[in-house]
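Running log. JK asked me to keep both predictions on one page so they can be read side by side. First protein, sequence followed by its tokens:
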Amino acid sequence: SEEQGAVYRHMSDVREVPFYVLLGEPGMGKSTVLRYEAQLAGVDVLTARTISGGTEQYPSPLIIDALDEYRMEGNRSDKAHTLANGMKSARVSRWRLSCRAEDWRKAADIAAITAAAGGQYILVIQLLPLDYEEAKQLLTAFGELDPKGFLKKAASFGAEAFTENPLILKLLHKAVSKSGVWPASRFDLFQS
């Protein structure tokens, strides 16, 4: 979080924050987090392209995924403003928005969406890479019987970075568990 260096360990720590932007690298779980939060709130996750700027009303919290994907269509420069107009017209008391970290234009995007927050503070949250314990927990959830051994083997191939991203960890586990045997070389690991 950029709020005076505040550190939030869990999404539940920010659940009551009225307005936040959730940033993360591809595969870090932004959409998964938003789906979970939407389920808890009893609302749907909408894509950024769904919010048209019209007068349609949405329940609160308004949960919007994929500003970055919305920007890929048409004129990229006006996308945050168009989205902000839609968010503002929805007149909700709380909203959440996700964007890939590398596509977030800090000052420009905050300036565009500030009106949708009624001028209130917008918390910007960065999803961090998985730590060792979190990677072990995910591997267990994926059905891995020896998560410590799996992580040790991944480290021996120089593939620690693969264990820090939930989606890539899942793909790595799937590739290895499919054959039941780790590849013979680092090159073979990347191939699989």
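And the second, directly underneath as requested:
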Amino acid sequence: SWLDREWSSSALAQDQQGWDWFALQLSDGSDLMFYNLRKVDGSQDPHSAGTFIAVDGQGQHLGAQEVTVRVTDYWISPRGGTYPAGWELELPSSELVLTVTPVMADQELVTTVRYWEGAVDVSGTRAGREISGRGYVELTGYAAN
């Protein structure tokens, strides 16, 4: 569990648009957390980072270039805005390839700042073996308030 004390996206730099944050618990006992900061032009900010926790509890810091995030699907909000709604994450150093799918498409929060934030299912492989999991994804910067 965690306590989220984030109140807005106002801490972003002028050239940053938002972030895609993944917190994934995998069936082999490992965990992956990665936040992908997005620039206004759609590119990845070099300050993107994360942590991989191995089964034995050892943590590995992940830099921006160590995790590849590919969007595989989208969801269009009835309030306006298009959010990613499916991803493939790859962490070559751990031989991990994951497919991340929302439990349901509409997990948009309409507050002072609009977010897509919710539960996801995970499937994929680690070193060629099947793996599954569950997690949470938070998306900002895809819809105007």
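Observation for JK regarding the second prediction: The two ends are 28 Å apart (CA to CA).
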